[in-house]
Amino acid sequence: MKALMTTWLGALLLMFGALAHAQSDLTIEITRGSDRATPIAIVPFAADGEELPEDVAQIISDDLQRSGYFEPLPRDAMYDQPSTGDEVRFGQWNALDVRYLVVGQVSRGGDGYRIRYELMDVSGESRMIGENVTAGGDELRGGAHYISDQIFEAITGIRGAFSTRIAYVTAQGTDDDMQFALYVADADGHNSQQVLSSREPILSPAWSPDGRRLAYVSFETERPAIYVQDVNTGQRARLASFDGINGAPAWSPDGRRLAMTLSKDGQPDIYVMDVGSRNLERITNNSSIDTEPAWSPDGDSLIFTSDRSGGPQIYRYSFGSGESERLTFTGNYNARGRISPDGESLFLIHRSNEGYQVARQDMDSGRLVVLSDSRLDESPSVAPNGTMVIFATQQGNNGVLGAVSADGRASYRLPSAQGDVREPAWSPFLN
Amino acid sequence: MQFKSHARILAIALSLALVAGCSSTGGSRDGSMDGTDANGGAGSGAAGSGQVSGSGVSGDRSGQQADGRIPEVRTIYFDFDRDSIRSEFESVLVAHARYLRSNGNARVVLQGHTDERGTREYNMALGERRANAVKRFLEVQGVSPSQLEVVSYGEERLAERGGSDDAHAKNRRVVFAY
After folding, report:
1. Using the beta-carbon criterion (under 8 Å), do B122 and A261 form an inter-chain contact?
2. Which CATH superfamily hosts domain B2-9+34-177?
3. Distance from A183 to chain B by nearest Cα, in Å?
4. Residue from A263, A286, A381 to probe the interface with B (highest B Cβ count within 10 Å)
5. Shortest CA gap B66–chain A (Å)
6. What are B116-169's pLDDT values in tens digits?
7. Could B160 and A174 be called an inter-chain contact, meaning their C-beta atoms sit closer than 8 Å?
8. 8 A C-beta contact, residue B2 and residue B10
């Protein structure tokens, strides 16, 4: 595990060393905590008297709280700050109604850090995990997210997604005096790195399933075109620049094909391009708008937005039958669908009496539930473990990113210090 | 070319109902579509943009034919939920059609825009629908399709920020970019 961790952090360093240094970090504001969150205590990690650049326990605590699954105990409520499992007096934590406890130490080791942590079950008075983690010199945050992943999975049985990344677009200005930039950052908004900047619009970033490439739409030639860029090397290719719309790229689960919207043959329709050969297959063909394709996790079907029935609704095209069927029937505006990794939920933008909101529709029952409490939501993107949805919304007159748990119980926001933030795309698992 | 057959079909539709404008594929819908919201937005937007077009168009009529200058009014606005040409902007389009017919080498990009409500890629399609409505109008007026190109920006380049009805109305537009 130690070796694996080292390799992974090394890869991350390589991956982002090549990128530009411009930063646009996002901060986190918790807007709603879940009433079903499990109480947990993450004790500050001992550090041998050394001043550390990052507070590892705080990063873990923030990760777990953000998920909505956990309610970390405030530090000032802790009577004691043990750093090893042997020092833990369970009765004391039991009295604080804490179900789980995380203790640890950080020390200098080699070129970086050695982190030792233990996860304790308070009521069972037992140790669930104990592990040593090594992290590169400036990868303490990555080490902390890795530990969050292990804790999350040990307790919930769900794979953690704290070591993932997000892509997003920033924008400033109006009309023909604008500045756009595409960024990638850690899932908690830190370590942002600029991938592309332009005075023309950038939108619809989409991660390849291996997490190495981003497909996106850029107007840098004053016409929309779809590009694929290697986030490691910065190398990129223009895949589609037909007359009219070139939009909404979506990777197939095997990473070999891109679904996209093209209007080169008249109205916007869905096409699938083989990324290797660039061969195009036309999927829909009618006089209405068909756009915003997304693949089912098994790759057997595509969902997309169409106004063939009047207003926008979500449809599903099956590659087997070649037929499309309508999936959404609640209300007169349902668009930009994304299917959860388990295939059971459809996340989308639904227009309610309140406005445009993130909603989840159960694939079996068809029942639709609004998840967000904002009014101008766009671009939902599901975490690879299916527990959270990140989306774009507005706070005042500024575009910010929001996230809501799949059950709607917990939510947080990631505002930017400057300009609008929009078009979030949650990466796949990277480790 | 694809455009020609398209234009021919639409020329028939347009000649039947030129004033109403052509909306062959149904209304375009940015954002909310309930009439209450739309009325306020369209009303205030019409007032604002009407003043601009009024002075601009009269200027064109006097000077445009003589010196062949590009008409000054290069933005027209759309009602909420619509891609039909508002009657007050027909004279603007006619002036551009006249200019393009008499300047065969001139080319224009018709930039379609929507307001910020709704999803981005769907709005991209709606912006294209608006720009296409202008393109069809110009083709019916005898402008060569080779002089016209449509580029939709959807909601990516708002003319005015903020969620007011007035801002929404100013964002629902097609811009002539020569």
Report:
1. no
2. OmpA-like domain (3.30.1330.60)
3. 17
4. A263
5. 31
6. 999 999 999 999 999 999 999 999 999 999 999 999 999 999 999 988 999 999
7. yes
8. no
Residue of A248, A166, A215 whose CA lies nearest to A425: A166
Residue ranges of domains in chain B: 2-9+34-177
Residue ranges of domains in chain A, CATH in brackets: 33-156 (3.40.50.10070), 165-426 (2.120.10.30)
pLDDT tens figures, B44-85: 333 333 333 333 344 444 334 445 899 999 999 999 878 999
Q: Which of A223, A291, A307 sits opposite B121 (nearest CB)?
A: A291
- Percentage above 70 pLDDT, chain A: 95
Q: Are B133 and B22 in contact (CB under 8 A)?
A: yes
Residues of A in contact with B150 (CB under 8 A): 244
Residue pair B73/B171 in contact (Cβ under 8 Å)? The answer is no
Asked if pLDDT for residue A320 goes beyond 80, the answer is: yes
How far apart CA A216 and CA A226 sit, in angstroms, is 6
Q: What is the C-alpha to C-alpha distance for residues A64 and A60, in angstroms, rounded to an integer?
A: 6
pTM of the model: 0.86
CB contact under 8 A, B2 and A312: no
Residue A176 has pLDDT above 70, yes or no: yes
Provide the pLDDT for residue B31.
46
- Residue A128 structure tokens: 């669930």
Using alpha carbons, select from A205, A241, A211 the residue that is nearest to residue A226. Answer: A241
ipTM above 0.85, yes or no: yes
